[in-house]
Amino acid sequence: MSTDLRPDPELAARAERTTPLMTLDPDALLASAHRHVRRRTAARVAGGALAVAAVAVLGANLAEHRTETPDPAQSTSPTQVARPFGDERVVEVADGLVAANRPAPQRAPDHRTNTLVDAATWQMDLGLTVRDHRLLLAVGPTGDQQQGAASYTRQSSDGSADGFGGGVWTWGTPSVADGVRFGSEVQGGRWSELVVVPTALRDPHVLLWSTSGFETDDGPTVAVELPTFAAPDGQLLAAALGEPSVAQAIQEGTSGIVFVGSDGRVVQAPCEDLPAPRCPTVEDVPGLAAAVAALTAAPQAPVATTTTLAQGVHATTSLARSTGTGWDTGLRVLRTWDDDEPGAVTFAPVSDAELRTARAVFEVPATHGLRASVAGLDGASVFAWSDDDSADRFPAQRYYPGSLRWDMNDDVRLLAGAVPRWMPEGRVVLWLPRGVEGVGGELVHALDVPTFADPAGSGARVYAVALDAGVAMVDLTTVRDALVFYVQDGVPARDVVEGSGKCTALHGDCLADQPDGGAALVAALAERGVDMDGVSLGAGVTPPSGEPAAQQAAPGITAAVEWADDVRLDLGDVEGRRVWLELPDRTADALVPTLFVDQALPQVQPRQLDLTSAGATQVSLPGVRALVAVGIAPQDGAWRAFVWSVSASAGGDLPVELPTVRRGERAVYAYVATDASGLFDTLSTDVWVSPDGDVLVPGCEGLTEDECEETGATPGLFADVREALG
Fold first, then answer.
1. Can you tell me the distance from the alpha carbon of 452 to that of 562, in angstroms, rounded to the nearest whole number?
2. Which residue has better confidence, 70 or 129?
3. Within 10 Å of residue 624's Cβ, how many Cβ atoms?
4. Cβ atoms of 630 and 614 closer than 8 Å
5. How far apart are alpha carbons 223 and 205 in whole angstroms?
C-alpha cells in the first residue's frame, strides 16, 4: 500500500521528489516535525527537565465556603470548559517548562503534606512529579476573610512535609473575575506558575508571556499557551513548573498572563508587583499581539462541520477547536481498503523547521503553513505559502506549494491548501475530468469548495476535501484525475492557478489532455467569472472509428488483438458505443490502463497493474451490463490466457482462450464481456499457461491444484484448461 502524501504525482524532475516534504513516511520528515514541543508529552519527568531536590505542594482555597462535597461548576460561567492538550497528565509547553494537563481526580487530603490549612477538604495530584516529589493542589476553609491562598512546601518520600519550601500568597475577598497569577521562584531555583482563570470569560485560553521568550521545537516565541483543568468545584486553573533556566529568563525580563476567550475577548491578569499604569499592554510586548490574534482566529466549536459536495466528495466548512495537537477537520478517510476504522484528518501549525524545508525545496518564500495528518498513519504533510506570493512567482508548469494532495493506492484521497494570497476574493474549484455523481444524481465535473480561515491566524483562507475510494483514481500519465483551480471574478485565463502547475494559465498541454480538448473545463471556469478571451481548446481524444480492430473470442466476449499507435487497444462496440483503452508506455514498473467509451472517461477506471507479477483488473461499463478486463502475464514469454467459469464448466464448455498482445516481452489481454458471455451470474477467473504448459491461477501461488480448486470453489478448473490445451 502506498501512503505517499505528495503534493503532485509527477515532480520527478524537481527537488520536491528527491526531498519529499509531502509524505506520510516518517523517515522522510525532519525529526523535529514529530515533536512539536508546545504539545509534547512530558509524563513523569525524571532527572533532566525538573531534577530538583524539592518540589511543591500547592494549597489553595478557591471559594469563600467549602464543604466535604465540592460545589457544582460555578454558575457565573456555565460555558467554561477546560482546555487540555491531548490525553496525557502533563505536557511540556516549552523547553524546561512543564504544565499540569489532566490531573488525577480529587481525593481525601493527606494532612502530613498540608501545612497551609489543617482542615483541607480535598487535594489533587497534578502529575508534576520528579523522583519521590510531587505537586499537589490542596483546598481547605478560608481564614481571616481571605478567599484563597497558595503555598509551596517540600514533600519527602514518606509523604510528610519537612518544612522547606517557598512563599505563601493569598488573594483577598474581591472576585477573581480578572484572573489571578502567582508566579514565583521556589525551592531549588525552579519557577512555579499558578493561574486562576477569570470566572466570567468564555472558554478562555491562557497565555504565559515573557519578554525573555521561550524556546520550543518551533523556535523561540514570546508566549506559550498553558492547558487548563477544572478543580472539583468547576473553577478553571493552570499550573506549571520550570527549570532554573526558565526562572532566570522570566526574572530577567517582564512576564505576565493573558486570557483569550472563545468570543474574542482579551483580559490581562493584573501584573504581579507592578502598579496598573506600568502594566504592559498586549501591543507593548513584541510578538504578543500576533500570539493573541492566532488564538482569536482559531476555531472554537467543539466539533468540525463538513458538507457533501457530490457522492463521495466531502469538504470541511469549519474546524473544531484545538485539542492541543491540532484542529479536527471533520473529514475521515479509510487508510487501507480493508480498514474498518477511518482515520481523522487533522490540521496543525507547522514548525519553523518545516517552513525552512519548504523554502529550500520549492525555492520560494514560505512564511505560513499547516501540517495535515491522518490518524493512525505515521508522519504528516505540509502545505505552505507566503503573504507576498504573486502570480509571477508561480507561472504555468510550476507547482504551487500552498496545495497538498494525498494519494493512497490508486485513489486520490485528500486535497488541501490555501487560496493564493494575491487573490483576495479567490475561490477554489475542484475539477474532476471523469465526473462524479452529484447530490441530485446528475453527472458533474466542477465542484465549488468551501474555504475557512487559517486557524493559525495568518489571515489566509484554506480548504480540505476528502474523496472516497474510486471517486478519482490516480492518473499517472496525464491530468485526468483531480485538479484544484484557484479563480477570482474577472481574472483572465492567464491568471488562473492550478495546484500542480500543469494547468495553471489553462496551459495548452493541459487542455489537450482533456478528452474534449478542455471545452467543459473552460465553460465551467467561465461560469465562475474567468475571462476566457484568447483561450484555444486542445484537440482532445479521438476514439477508434470504422471496423473494430478486435476479435470475438466467444459469444459476448470481444478482445483486443493489436495496438494502435502503440498505446491504444480497440475492444469494439457495445450498444453502439466504441470501447477502447489507452495504455501509454510512460511507467516502467506498472501498466496503467485508461478506459474510454467513445470520447468519454468513465468515473470508475481499471486499476494499475504491477509489472513484477501476474495481475488483473476489472471494471463495469456505465449504464450497460458489460465489463472490461485487463490482465498481464506473470513473466516474459509466450504465455497463453484463458477465462474459466463455473457455469460454463457445468455446461460442458471448455475455457475460452483470449487473444493477447505484447507490452515489451510480456503478454497482455484486454476484453469486453457483455451479458451474452455468461460471466455475470457465475464465478469466473482468468488462467495463465506458461510456455512449458504449467497452469497458473492468480491467487493460488503456493497451493496444490486440489487446494486451489477447493479454496476458490472452482472444481475441475485444471482439467478443463488442460483439455482446452489439447
1. 52
2. 129
3. 14
4. no
5. 12
Q: What is the pLDDT of residues 96-126, one digit of tens each?
A: 999 999 888 877 766 655 554 445 566 777 7
- Three-state SS for 245? helix
List, in order, residues 6 or more apart from 566 with CB less than 8 Å away. Answer: 585
- Which one-letter DSSP state was computed for residue 362? H
Residue 519 phi, psi (nearest 5): -60, -45
Taking the C-alpha atoms of residue 190 and residue 192, their distance in angstroms, rounded to an integer, is 7
* pLDDT score of 23 more than 60: no
CA pair distance 474, 530, nearest whole angstrom: 27
HEC letters along 603-640: CCCCCCEECCCCEEEEEECCCCCEEEEEEEEEEECCCE
Across 50-54, 578-582, 633-637, least confident range = 50-54
Report which residue type is found at 705.
E
Residue 215, CB half-sphere, CA atoms under 13 Å: how many?
7
Place of cell 509489472: 611
**What is the distance between the alpha carbons of residues 20 and 354, in angstroms, rounded to a whole number?**
12
Query: Is residue 37 helix, strand or coil?
Result: helix
State the DSSP string of 122-146.
EEEEEEEEETTEEEEEEE----TT-
Between CA 34 and CA 378 the distance in angstroms is 9
* 589, 597 Cβ separation under 8 angstroms: no
**SS3 for 300-352, per residue?**
CCCCCEEEEEECCEEEEEECCCCCCCCEEEEEEECCCCCCCCCEEEEEEECCH
CA-based nearest residue to 39, from 218, 255, 208:
218
Q: Phi and psi (nearest 5°) for 352? A: -60, -35
**What are the C-alpha distances in Å from 517 to residues 201, 433, 541?**
58, 11, 7
346 CB neighbour count, 10 Å cutoff? 25
Strand partners, 236: 230
Question: Contact 122/138 with Cβ under 8 angstroms?
Answer: yes
pTM above 0.70, yes or no: no
Question: CA torsion sign, 669 to 671 to 676 to 682?
Answer: positive
What is the spatial distance between Cα 631 and Cα 572, in angstroms, rounded to a whole number?
18
What Cα–Cα distance (Å) separates residue 211 from each residue in 191, 251, 507, 629, 705? 16, 10, 51, 68, 77
Whole-angstrom Cα distance, residue 496 to residue 491? 7
Q: Which of 194, 206, 136 is nearest to 169 (CA)?
A: 194
Q: Do residues 617 and 670 touch, judged by C-beta distance below 8 A?
A: no
